[in-house]
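Lab notebook, bench 4. The sequencing result for the construct came back, and we need a structural model before the next group meeting so we can plan mutations. Quick request posted to the team channel:

Model the 3D structure of this chain.
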Amino acid sequence: MSTQPQPQSGHGNPQQPGGYGPQPKQGMSTGLKVALGCGIPAVLGLVLLGGCGLLFTKAASDAGKELDKNHDSAAVAPGGTARGGGSSKADERDIAKDVKVTSCKVKAGEYGIKELDLKIEYINSGDRRFTYLAEGEVTVNGEKKSDILSTGQNLAPGQKYTDDNAGALAYDVAKSAKSGDKIECKLIKVSRNSY
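Done. Here's the predicted structure in token form:
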């Protein structure tokens, strides 16, 4: 009877390297495992991040365009004519014509105190509700003495409003005014925002 030799530990075992029989196939290298395990998710993450960034940029651009539709401004030139600032349509009515000074004089107020009677009239010529902001200056004998800041808020299309207290910032002008002084109230800039 013939007996087969018994393999000793580590020698002759076909399951172990260096033993008899076919060698097992080598697996992927560690570097390749790391590259595939980390690289693919990293590339997918960058693609996802880039896509989200593009969507955010597009949304912000669209929102900016929508806000631009809701704001107009015009600067009033020295001759009284207006120059458009933020108007996007060439045929749109000039918004500076929506606002005008209707009164600018010194008068005796309550208790005989002199005050500047400055009134600014607003007429909304737009196609939706607007809030107007009028900025200007009060001059005495050609020299700037005070600022004008007036608002006409939430005016419907065609609605008219008069700010009877637009001269509140110029109380010192009236107080120091003399009878021969030439007082002028000039609008410099008109802005409007819609709802």
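The CA atoms of residues 101 and 120 lie 5 Å apart.
Will bring this to the meeting.
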